[in-house]
Amino acid sequence: MNGAPRQEDSTTSTLDAAALLPQLRAWALELGFSQIGVADIDLASAEPGLLAWLEAGFHGEMHYMAAHGLKRARPAELVPGTLRVLTARMDYRPQDSADDWQAIEWRGLRTPLQAQVSLYARGRDYHKVLRARLQQLATRIEAAIGPFGHRVFTDSAPVLEVELAARSGIGWRGKHTLTLHREHGSMFFLGEIYLDLPLPLSEPVTAHCGQCQACLDICPTRAIVAPYRVDARRCISYLTIEQDGPIPLELRAAIGNRIYGCDDCQLICPWNKFAGKSELPDFDARAPLRAPRLLDLWVWDEAEFLRRTEGSAIRRIGHARWRRNIAVALGNALRETGDPAVAQALAEALPQASELLAEHIEWALEQGQPERQAEHAHQGG
Q1: How far is CA 57 from the centre of its chain?
Q2: What's the whole-model pTM score?
Q3: Which of 15, 91, 287, 362 has the greatest number of CB atoms lying within 10 Å of its CB?
């Protein structure tokens, strides 16, 4: 834990912490956060669900999920000295997005030759943005009260961030397992500061999914296997970002033109009609990722990929996965459009392709064969 724990009696410490909270909220807003909350560190009731999810193998190749065991649900074991978890929400819908942004995203998904990148990944890497601003928030606390123990997290350690967000009043866990807010939907990032300050706890909010299961019904690969339960091995976000190696054959057609992540369960969610715009320009889409064409992205060599994705979350997957994902999307586009330019681009790349990429290119080229198109039509597209 960064900083030295303060040597104060508990009564004074509690009074100081209570007085600090309003100032903390004001600082957070100044730093671009949309909301903060305070969660207790007793997450014992979440442990059975975490264990069941891991035992089912739903974490796939994300071995780090299991490596830390129940430390994920025990903040004081992960960071000794932790008394509270400060949770933070940061909206990421781009500042320049249109009011009908959801309709625009759906049109993109229906345009086979367009590359679809998750909305959150089109601008600056959120890890960098949130981590820096959470640390600035911690620095302001330290300036006000002196050294204190803390550690900042942004999707960077074994933290049950949705559980903590729900317990601290940021929102409730939706059936797609993401955090939902009645006035802001789910288009936001979460970050945390584990700290040794006894801040007053925030009140959790009630859930408002009701009987709706739109997210379950829309999932292209049926990855949401039950309300509040996702099999990551079937999730397009996992397949295009986390998974190394080949994408399962039976899931490739369902990926469509999604080359980095998937937003379908959020796009269909009724609460996201309230999704607010970001206070920061960091999440505005970079020029190459504004309605990009698959064929334009396909020709990026590794040097151009690294240059174009500098400071972006996309860079984390590397050029090999990037090409693998685009090859699948081009195969789906070839099946839908029969565009000879797609077949030519794939065929020209095949001789120099790695074994992994070659297998995906060969699959993609097969999608242009009449029998493949007929088979797909018979299966209902």
Answers
A1: 20
A2: 0.91
A3: 91
- Spatial separation of the C-alpha atoms in residues 354 and 352, rounded to whole Å: 7
pLDDT-above-70 percentage for the chain: 91
Pairwise CA distance, residues 361 & 68, whole Å? 37
**279 neighbors 34 (Cβ within 8 angstroms):** yes
Q: Tokens for 287?
A: 């020029």
Query: Using an 8 Å Cβ cutoff, are 218 and 265 in contact?
Result: yes
- The one catalytic residue in 9, 40, 125, 155 is 155
Which neighbouring-strand residues pair with 293? 114
- Residue type for 369, please? Q
CB atoms closer than 10 angstroms to residue 274: 13
Q: Minimum mean pLDDT among 44-48, 231-235, 355-359: which range?
A: 44-48
Q: Check residue 358 and give its pLDDT.
A: 98
155 catalytic per annotation: yes
Taking the C-alpha atoms of residue 49 and residue 35, their distance in angstroms, rounded to an integer, is 27
The domain limits of the chain are: 10-96+123-195, 214-270+287-378
Helix (H, G, I), strand (E, B) or coil at 318: helix
- Separation CA 18–CA 33 (nearest Å): 20
- C-alpha closest to that of 263 among 116, 147, 87: 116
Q: What pLDDT sits at residue 51?
A: 76
CB count in 10 Å sphere of residue 105: 17
Model confidence pLDDT, tens digit, residues 83-135:
999 999 999 999 999 999 999 999 999 999 999 999 999 999 999 999 999 99
Name the residue with tokens 């029998």.
371
Give the pLDDT of residue 19: 84
Tally the residues of the chain: 381
Nearest in space to 195 (alpha carbons), one of 163, 156, 149: 149
Residue 328, CA atoms < 13 Å, CB-side half-sphere: 25
